[in-house]
Design brief:
The protein has about 130 residues and is of the alpha+beta class. Helix content is about 25%, strand content about 45%. The protein has two domains: about 80 residues, ATP Synthase, domain 1; about 40 residues.
């Protein structure tokens, strides 16, 4: 019996990723990191800034996401996000630029606590990426 399911990641520009041989996906949900396997209970959740890890039979891919919505139903995982990057495609300059923008945004005294929390999450993830 196959342990695979389908995942599709969509951003405003295009369908970013569509794979049918996925064994597991780990997403940075607001509730914490959530692992999704075939036949997982149906869910809808919001994503916080973090790393999406997609494990297929042939490889493991990591993606940096800033926000989004994840839905799993009938062994189909859909991730809708406004901003996503394949980690292996991010060079130090791009990470530094995103980090600089986030730190500038974080210094604004007029943002609310929820927005500040999300920006701080983003900064922490980007700092970890720049160390690797």
């Amino acid at each position: 019996m196959s342990e695979e399911f389908k995942v599709e990641i969509v951003n405003p520009e295009k369908s970013f990723l569509s794979k049918e041989d996925v064994r597991e996906v780990v997403v940075p949900a607001f509730e914490g990191e959530m692992g999704i396997l075939k036949d997982h209970i149906s869910i809808i959740s919001f994503l916080k800034p973090g790393i999406i890890r997609v494990y297929s039979n042939s490889e493991e891919n990591k993606y940096f996401v800033e926000d989004g919505i994840v839905e799993f139903k009938d062994n189909n995982l859909s991730i809708l996000t406004s901003s996503i990057y394949k980690v292996s495609d991010l060079d130090k300059n791009k990470i530094d630029q995103i980090l600089k923008d986030a730190e500038k945004e974080s210094s604004d005294n007029n943002i609310d606590d929820q927005k500040r929390y999300l920006i701080d999450q983003k900064i922490e993830v980007l700092k970890n990426l720049s160390l690797n």
